[in-house]
Design goal:
six-stranded mixed β-sheet, 273 residues, Ubiquitin-like (UB roll), alpha/beta, 15 strands
Length: 273
């Protein structure tokens, strides 16, 4: 398996002083997902938690509905990258063969290779029945726990994180990647493989919230998505349609709620003129 970090030489300027030194940086490699012997997608990502990535990617792409529909995962080093060979149950193999498509996804893209506008704005699972409730302290704890659990980011300051948090239990899973979509796919794989109840917790991410982040969180089953950065307008509309609580711009116990605020105990709300 390729290393997840490397050392790069650098010249820094701080307070007018120039110094030569080195810095730890994350690795980034092509990761190909192959089904039934054919490459389905090539993503650029961090070579860690590859099995979780394969399961989560398969889930969020609609290739599988449960971990049991994957019979085997073989990770093979191919030159500078990895070929992740996924063996599906026969019914899923046949279904995938019928909708075969090819795509190549750079780090910043979560919807690369789609074939139509309809695929980009595909229906999102309904999570409106989700009964998770949060206090301001829960939200602050979730964001802080994710930051503290990011081992790779502590070394490099250059990767995204995604975590699964259950109030009263804490952070049950966390995954990292140079791509924010990849980190969330890895988390989806971890939640599915570990048999965690997606509806029983919340997803917390270090990135902005775009529509595909809402889609992936809903596929996990979470009715709450917490982010450090801001959402897009389409992400807000999609979360509203899904019945998801969208919490963004989280800074300790300060945050902004864009949809379904009834799941958060905020106290009295004052309108801003």
């Amino acid at each position: 398996m390729p290393a997840t970090i490397a050392t790069a030489l650098e010249i820094t300027r701080r307070n007018g002083v120039i110094r030569r030194g080195s810095r730890v940086v994350p690795e980034e490699v092509p990761i190909a997902f192959s089904y039934d012997g054919s490459t389905h997608a090539v993503m650029m990502g961090t070579p860690a938690d590859i099995e979780d990535f394969a399961v989560g990617f398969s889930l969020t792409e609609g290739i599988i509905a449960s971990a049991a529909e994957i019979e085997a995962i073989n990770v093979i080093e191919e030159g500078p990258g990895l070929d992740v060979q996924v063996t599906l149950a026969q019914e899923r193999e046949e279904a995938l063969r019928a909708r075969r498509r090819h795509m190549a996804g750079p780090v910043g893209c979560g919807l690369c290779g789609i074939e139509s506008i309809e695929q980009a704005v595909r229906p999102v699972p309904d999570v409106s029945a989700g009964s998770v409730t949060l206090s301001a302290r829960d939200i602050a704890e979730a964001a802080a726990a994710l930051g503290g659990a990011q081992v790779l980011n502590a070394q490099t300051h250059a990767v995204h994180g995604a975590g699964f948090f259950v109030p009263g239990e804490g952070l049950l899973a966390v995954r990292e990647d140079v791509g924010r979509h990849n980190a969330l796919d890895k988390l989806a794989g971890a939640v599915l493989s570990q048999g965690l109840d997606g509806a029983g917790g919340v997803v917390v991410v270090t990135s902005r919230i775009s529509v595909e982040m809402v889609q992936k969180a809903a596929i996990i089953g979470s009715s709450v998505l917490i982010a450090i950065s801001a959402p897009t307008a389409l992400a807000i509309r999609t979360a509203e349609t899904a019945g998801m609580t969208l919490i963004a711009l989280t800074r300790g116990e300060d945050f902004e709620i864009f949809t379904r605020s009834d799941r958060v105990s905020t106290g009295a709300v004052a309108d801003v003129a």
